[in-house]
Design a protein that fits this description.
Two copies of one chain form a homodimer. Chain A is mainly α. Chain A contains 16 helices and two strands. In chain A, strands 1-2 form a two-stranded antiparallel sheet.
Amino acid sequence: MTSAVPALTQVRDRVDGALRAFLGQQRDVLLRAGDELLPGVEAMTGLLAGGKRLRPAFCYWGWRGAGGHDCPEIINAAAALEFLHASALVHDDIMDASDTRRGQPSLHRQFEAYHTARGWHGSPGAFGMGMAILLGDLLLAWTDEMFHSSGLPDDALRRGRPVLDLMRTEVFAGQYLDLLGQAAGDGTLDSALRVVEYKTSKYTIERPLHLGAALAGAPWRTGAEAPGAGPRGQAAALAAAYSAYGLPLGTAFQLRDDILGVFGDPAQTGKPAGDDVREGKHTVLLAIARARATGPQAAIIEKYLGDPLLDEAGTTEVRTVIADTGAVAECEAMISRHVAEAVAALAAAPITGEAKDALADLAVAATARND
Amino acid sequence: MTSAVPALTQVRDRVDGALRAFLGQQRDVLLRAGDELLPGVEAMTGLLAGGKRLRPAFCYWGWRGAGGHDCPEIINAAAALEFLHASALVHDDIMDASDTRRGQPSLHRQFEAYHTARGWHGSPGAFGMGMAILLGDLLLAWTDEMFHSSGLPDDALRRGRPVLDLMRTEVFAGQYLDLLGQAAGDGTLDSALRVVEYKTSKYTIERPLHLGAALAGAPWRTGAEAPGAGPRGQAAALAAAYSAYGLPLGTAFQLRDDILGVFGDPAQTGKPAGDDVREGKHTVLLAIARARATGPQAAIIEKYLGDPLLDEAGTTEVRTVIADTGAVAECEAMISRHVAEAVAALAAAPITGEAKDALADLAVAATARND
């Protein structure tokens, strides 16, 4: 991801500051219960120090596009989405048995090591998992606390809340479908794309934009109401425009992530090479590769998919096969097409020119090949 | 627990209705993502059908005691606490590897069995755990959604929010200390009592009362401000009175739970006999028993504590030893003393007579020996 895009970096630095301030307050609350909470505070602070702040950026530009003025309060509200995301990452890493996150050991592994180093009672793995479940819960609860204590007025919060509520329910629904698909799925492109819609497109881009718009005053619509004249019609047109931009861009973003999950450099992804193959993820890239694979190619993919012991040599072999099927080229073409569709939707969007420029830049930044 | 207490049953039936209505709405949202969400919806609905609704009852009577009128909106807001509690139970059961909850298989076991029955890919245990993590997250997110969509006016919600926020952070801090205590703890009474304060007393009784009071209009204080004249002083006096009642009652409630966790009838507890011993819980009862045990008694307690294979004969043996140490009698005496202290605090509390009667009844009901 191109981190030099001002639409992203300007928001990111201020979001970082808002998160640090909030974490400082919570640190005091937790340490009142006992000094033993300090390692938990530090683990959460370390996790929150990373991340590209993509969801806050879309929330912020959703607000600006709807006519909202720049102010610290919208930064606070947008930053709250980082807690939801951090919670999802912590709990995802338990479910996927991932060792690494943002270039550091995942939270359950940190506490497993903490237990082992001290020679405590019981299973280090169970202790690490329990701690990570609890800290993920705390991060999830803080989403809400930071949102509501953002300083935005009550009427803005009242308009934003249903969007935040729906966003949370949808992302859990997407994760549920993903987990179910890995256990029972048919491995088809259609089922992979439905997971992407809920787990990524709505969660990462469409709903953050809708949240910003709702906070800025546009009553939010699910799309049931046809765009038309009057303030309600204008709001519906705005929400529809953000969906027309956000949903294809979300798909493109996930496809880039799929490619990085197999071919990415660990220094960039913060995850070991080939992690998606090792974890047996049912990604769109792998669905396309499996659909296009010849018999021998399919045998190699099946051999390594979900193998926890996948090594360097196996990673190289499966990468070659996936590329040979043409799946990567097809994904790159899909990314280009979806980004073009997203950017084209901005032309007619009823938003400020500044927001159009920023969202066009974010579309490229969120789906770029390299940092 | 004596379920015939009107202060509890009147609230419970209305909370049940509010939860059913909310779950019906969420069912529609989830099924829009896919019919595959149905087993998740059903598992959450089954879990939410049980429970004594103790936290909503304290929230409701905290409101009534502060002068709030009976209305459906406070029932909705109070019912939201059941989602927080259900989430904690689902995640606790994963951490404790508990098979049973409210007389049914725990959620992770339900989904493990679901996976096994269908012969799906991967580990049934990992699938069950993943599903239970996600559903617990969803329940936690719904706490907030139900609270904010209760229909209470914005100014009431604004007053209540910091209490709900603090309540969530405190309960996770208590669970963290509990998990840490089980791994690294000294097993002393002091450390067990600190866990009780955060994990039970504040969470189950004090904060729900404070939440009700804050929603009813009493600006809420952490106790930093001295009670005195004027509206702020009155609010501080009310909060202090609820703490004086809630904290000792919470300890008594937990001690009853500790006794039931070793000696309880599975039909009453919804958990297998002797479950706390099997799971190696660092309860106050066990801390007292260990402190009072002779050498041979201590050897038997250590032998069975945390033994996942503890059977009927072992349960009987360890029960006898715990009773022989005098720990049960000491716990019963502590319960009586704490309940008396809680009820005595009501006499001078600046609350309505009706609320005093209800809270006195609830104190007995929450700590009674049998159903």
